[in-house]
Design brief:
430 residues; binds uridine-5'-diphosphate-glucuronic acid
């Protein structure tokens, strides 16, 4: 089928490339000419495992092409996916400007009846409002379907082809079936529901996962007070299938372009509908506090941070991505700089993205060992595999006393580091 995908960020590029891989003829559209050119040359505009290979394959087959929005004359595809950003406003509400602009653009350019598929994360209730604002009467030839995405950065292609579920929400059965047909061949439970429930499923899933993280982080904090070990606790608790082992990794909290934004937006939505969602507030507060713990731990050890050198290992919000949006490392670095520390940072692939937003005084290293050279303390902010494989024995003499190692992701062998003479501290570890 001929398809259009508007918005070529993480979600849009994976959506366009995957739909093309499934045999559709896809045009991806964005306002950024540089991004469009890069994609037409099969060069991924961000790091995502497997994406380069997929784009090269599609380039050869000619099934996906990319165009700048204002160069599109008319739309002849029966289905248009909207994958534009819905950033946070200062009050936490989702900003729907790009979504609205895209719907107006689709209506203006449409040469055939179109089903608009919303993949952007929009607050529950948005779809119904958009339909009443932009879609006119019942017999309007346009249709609106909510099809939330559950892709994880770093595993997005795998998540597209092997999802846990596919959710399609809409009020027009024909449109729902048209979109369901696009996922034929993918083995996963397909949930057909109304638009608002589909939107809620997305927020509820992200908010629940964020709740799991904040919950285990509170248990980690309690472990520190009582002398327990959160890794043992999480392991044993997670064995119960009613709880599940995933998202029980304690540390410096969640970041990224999704959890922080979506949890805040759900909180705002609840408040603006007369419901005070206390649990969600606690999740947000715990997460905000958690990312500051490494700085408190360094303060305890070094007293004053003035003139001290602190190495930061990991800038991305999680491994296997170069995305630094709302990464805990950024807040930690800003606080360290405020207190007079010198920061030497290293990430295997996110140095450049971080350098675009952090103060220019941060020094970027080409390797972990370079970042650690002369450092009094180091904070592990992202659990990149290479950090647990480091030769810590060899690194001992590169660092300065007290050689504090703050393992913000509990990914190192704490006992081994203590034996080597490092002042190792995990989060909630004995
Ligand atoms: C998340 C969801 O997992 C996806 O299902 C969803 O589609 C996506 O948001 C979205 O809304 O678009 P993502 O942001 O790529 O995906 O990252 P996750 O792997 O979920 O991790 C989010 C954050 O939680 C990271 O900072 C990670 O370090 C942190 N985390 C995760 C923990 O602190 N502990 C854990 O046990 C798991």
């Amino acid at each position: 089928m001929e398809l259009v995908v508007v918005g070529l960020g993480h979600v849009g590029v994976i959506t366009a490339a995957s739909l093309a891989r499934m045999g559709n003829s896809v045009i991806g559209v964005d306002i950024d000419p540089e991004r469009v050119n890069s994609l037409n040359a099969s060069i991924p505009p961000f790091y995502e495992p497997g994406l380069g290979e997929l784009l090269s394959l599609l380039g050869k087959e000619g099934r996906a092409r990319f165009a700048v929005l204002d160069q599109v004359d008319g739309i002849t595809a029966p289905v248009v996916f909207i994958c534009v950003g819905t950033p946070s406003q200062p009050n936490g509400a989702a900003d729907l400007t790009y979504v609205r602009d895209t719907i107006k653009w689709v209506r203006e350019k449409a040469q055939v009846p179109i089903t608009i598929v919303m993949k952007s994360t929009v607050p529950p209730g948005t779809g119904r409002k958009l339909v009443s604002q932009y879609f006119g009467a019942e017999n309007d030839s346009f249709a609106y379907v909510s099809n939330p995405e559950f892709l994880r950065e770093g595993r997005a292609i795998e998540d597209w082809f092997q999802p846990d579920r596919i959710v399609i929400g809409g009020e027009k059965p024909d449109a729902v079936e048209l979109v369901a047909g696009l996922f034929r061949g993918i083995k996963a439970p397909l949930i057909r529901t109304d638009t608002t429930s589909a939107e809620l499923i997305k927020y509820a899933a992200n908010a629940f996962l964020a709740t799991k993280i904040s919950f285990i982080n509170e248990i980690a904090n309690l472990c520190e007070k009582l002398g327990g070990d959160v890794t043992d606790v999480a392991h044993a608790v997670g064995i119960d299938p009613r709880i599940g082992a995933d998202f029980l990794q304690a540390g410096i909290g969640y970041g990224g372009s999704c959890f922080p934004k979506d949890v805040r937006a759900l909180d705002f939505l609840a408040t603006s509908n007369g419901h005070s969602f206390e649990l969600l507030r606690a999740v947000i507060n715990v997460n905000n506090r958690q990312r500051l713990l490494p700085v408190c731990k360094i303060r305890e050890r070094l007293c004053s941070l003035q003139g001290k050198v602190v190495a930061i290992l990991g800038l991305a919000f999680k491994p296997n991505t170069d995305d630094v949006r709302e990464a805990p490392a950024l807040d930690i670095i800003r606080l360290l700089l405020d207190e007079g520390a010198k920061v030497q940072a290293y990430d295997p692939i996110a140095n450049i993205n971080a350098s675009r937003i952090l103060p220019s005084s941060v020094v970027y290293a080409d390797s972990a060992s370079e970042a650690l050279t002369g450092a009094h303390a180091v904070v592990i902010c992202t659990e990149w595999g290479e950090f647990s494989l480091l030769d810590w024995r060899g690194l001992f003499n590169r660092m300065e006393p007290p050689r504090a190692v703050i393992d913000g992701r509990n990914c190192l062998e704490g006992q081994a580091l203590l034996r080597l003479g490092f002042d190792y501290m995990g989060i909630g570890r004995r």
